TrEMBL record:
Transmembrane segments: none annotated. Residues 3-178 form the Thioredoxin domain. This is Thioredoxin domain-containing protein. PROSITE patterns: THIOREDOXIN_2 (PS51352). Pfam families: AhpC-TSA. It comes from Rhodanobacter panaciterrae. It comes from the Bacteria.
Length: 182
């Protein structure tokens, strides 16, 4: 079942791929909580690449990014974590966290992304190779969470490559910055 704003973000006690605890919910920080499909997903790896490139800018505006993959720690390390990332990557091999946040499955929406997002698919395939062809039917989702642990926006992807636009994340941050400056 989908979560909606302004619900309280369900608390998650996760461990990143290096064994460090990650607390989701009442961290007192603005958070982009991103749920990813498999660690070998080309769309997911391209998004990790984008978030890595934008991290310094988004972090300077007060954003914490947490990426949760429906994969084992070894798979996350092999694909998304093979390079250092400036934000935590968590493995959710049983998809428990994905289920808590209402992450959906759809073969049709997975195929829709493969057909309609060819340039992104190809860019992602360059990052993960042929392993990117064997992925699950999980859909992506992103949650913008405020300092009090409330979901400000829940964005469930329409297809396997659909993510919250970075511009929406920037708007979320600019509204917060404006409120704190006033």
């Amino acid at each position: 079942m989908r979560l909606l704003a302004p619900a309280l973000a369900p608390a998650l006690d996760l461990v990143d791929i290096h064994g460090q605890p990650i607390v989701i919910g009442h961290s007192g920080r603005l958070t982009l909580l991103s749920f990813f499909r498999d660690a070998a997903c080309p769309f997911c790896n391209f998004r990790i690449y984008e978030l890595t490139n934008r991290h310094a800018e988004l972090s300077a505006l007060g954003l914490e990014i947490v990426a949760v993959f429906s994969a084992s720690q070894a798979e996350v390390l092999r694909f998304a974590g093979h390079r250092p990332r400036p934000f935590p990557l968590a493995a959710d091999p049983t998809s428990t966290a994905h289920e808590i946040y209402g992450i959906e499955r759809s073969l049709w929406r997975k195929l829709k992304a493969i057909v309609s997002r060819v340039p992104t698919l190809l860019k992602g395939m360059r990052l993960v190779g042929l392993a990117g062809l064997n992925t699950s039917n999980l859909m992506p989702a992103d949650f913008l969470i405020d300092e009090r642990g409330r979901i400000v926006e829940a964005y469930y992807g329409d297809d396997a490559g659909d993510r919250i636009p970075i511009e929406r994340v920037e708007q979320f941050l600019s509204r917060r910055q404006y409120r704190h400056a006033a």
